[in-house]
């Protein structure tokens, strides 16, 4: 199985997320992660979807089906090496009195992770990076006692020189439903 | 107040000075789109729109069906004959859910349709209000586009988009979920309508790219055994003349898909028959012998390809198709051509060498001889006691000179109808192919008749399917529509029975259907009819039906356990087609 990242640019329309996920569910494809936000262009949303697939062909078909949706402006599919990508995770870690000492220096220096909140007997640590890096930290911190763990969907930008939005139709031609 | 008849243009002109409600804006938008016919059924949430419709009854013909499924299929039949969107108007909740089957059918068979569905007041959305259903959610996977209109001001723009999306590119159904609030409130500006001609997020390519055309032409010119598969796209883009010119110049044999029937004259020398599960013998077998397959406006449905892993593996494929998502979906294209069939054929024609491929075309004839002897002759000329469906259809074809519009339901009779009707006129078939919806034919036929009042429209229906939508006989009568209804009655759910016989060891599980007296039923709807039981009176019965002034139901009692052959068993290779 290979990881593919799909970047979808759409008009900002109610219900579009549903239409897009239907394309996946109908084909029994599992979405690994999903992130949606507005882009640098007003009225244009960007979906970043990660999925695992056996074949590139399957992903190509998927991309064509998504592109077919009215209100989708453009769709791009990438392999990991084509993009810079990132995820963010938050760990709520227990630090009870008399419990094992948290090695803050290691957390900062070796894992590039930061305490963003100090509670009475817990801390919240933020760790950004690739999925693998986050999981590596996860395993390191686990013995300490993870009270809560949450990881965001992937965000990614391509390594191409132009911004993807530049491939979209000109701003003047916009009309937003 | 005296009621004076106005034209659509006058109504529109007058409205441009007024501020109107959303419901009136809808009517005006329909007029601006050139709509003059609606198929519908009223109810609570759509009442403000029906109230507005009352003022437009001179310029908008509303056909009151007897079930919303009927409205949808009628709109489909109308759309196919008119080559533009059919319009269905229904209420919320159950009205909307009754429309699901036609919407799904229209998506699979690329039929342009605009469905306007009532919805509860804005403030009640999401509260499980009376007759509230999540129509947007439900229709998302079965529409080309859908949209919930929640304010009157949106109406003109959204209607313009709806018609544009439904009718361009690969046509399909659009659903507009129209809240009562939006129907009733006043627009905040005078009504004005701008037809949609382009959208930033949707631009179907009609004119194909030059390099794709050149690559396709090169493949075609080098081919020794080229083979054209013509689909529904030919009918949709009205490319029949271009197909004929292309076939004649290139000398390439042409087969059609089920929905592509009537794309070319049945007697044209290049025509070799139809494809797929119950298509002809040679057309299927030779798919696995051609060297270049030229697929035009078709999508390699599994009913056409059988087992994909054994489908035309030897062939290079030119795939001309307006929907880019169909390219490489089922069959890998060597030379894809994305565009409208008519435009593509026009562009290809000058680049194609003049040829005749006599030996290759003779190969089809060899199979024809076998099929003729093993199947056709045994159907049309036999001394068995019972009438075979094929006899009835062949006679119908003869008596109508192949010029009728046949609207078929789903089952054995559907396959037989397309096997034995010799289409001489374009755009003459309306059938449910992709969805295979029983109950389609009767309402679709009434819609087809409204769309083509000057053509003879014959619905060919099984005894099972007829009982799914027979209430539309009332619509036919009320609207005085001259629709001919031919029931081929084998007293079985025949197609399922055939599968049970062939693939489930003769275990006839609930396919034995006890039927009502169809002629008496028709009579109850004020429609004349007759039951034909004997071959001797078949011709006279058909003539009587065709010559009758008005709707007519002819029931033909057919052999009970006749099977449809040839047949490619589901999931098998096309060249494993069975003749018995
Ligand atoms: C709505 C619907 N339900 C069930 C089916 C499955 N089905 C396909 S053909 C068929 C039998 C049709 O029987 P009839 O209308 O008598 O036609 P015949 O095959 O005998 O010509 C059935 C049940 C279907 N296609 N559509």
TrEMBL record, chain A:
It holds the Pfam family ALS_ss_C. Belongs to the acetolactate synthase small subunit family. It is an enzyme of class 2 (transferase). Residues 5-80 form the ACT domain. The keyword tRNA-binding does not apply. This is Acetolactate synthase small subunit. One of its GO terms (cellular component) is cytosol. GO terms for biological process: isoleucine biosynthetic process; L-valine biosynthetic process. CDD domains: ACT_AHAS. It comes from Siphonobacter aquaeclarae. InterPro entries: Acetalactate_synth_ssu (IPR004789), Acetolactate_synth/TF_NikR_C (IPR027271), Acetolactate_synth_ssu_C (IPR019455), ACT-like_dom_sf (IPR045865), ACT_dom (IPR002912), AHAS_ACT (IPR039557), AHAS_small-like_ACT (IPR054480).
From TrEMBL, chain B:
It catalyses: 2 pyruvate + H(+) = (2S)-2-acetolactate + CO2. Residues 21-136 form the Thiamine pyrophosphate enzyme N-terminal TPP-binding domain. Residues 409-556 form the Thiamine pyrophosphate enzyme TPP-binding domain. One of its GO terms (molecular function) is magnesium ion binding. One of its GO terms (cellular component) is acetolactate synthase complex. Its EC number is 2.2.1.6. The keyword tRNA processing does not apply. NCBIfam families: acolac_lg. This is Acetolactate synthase.
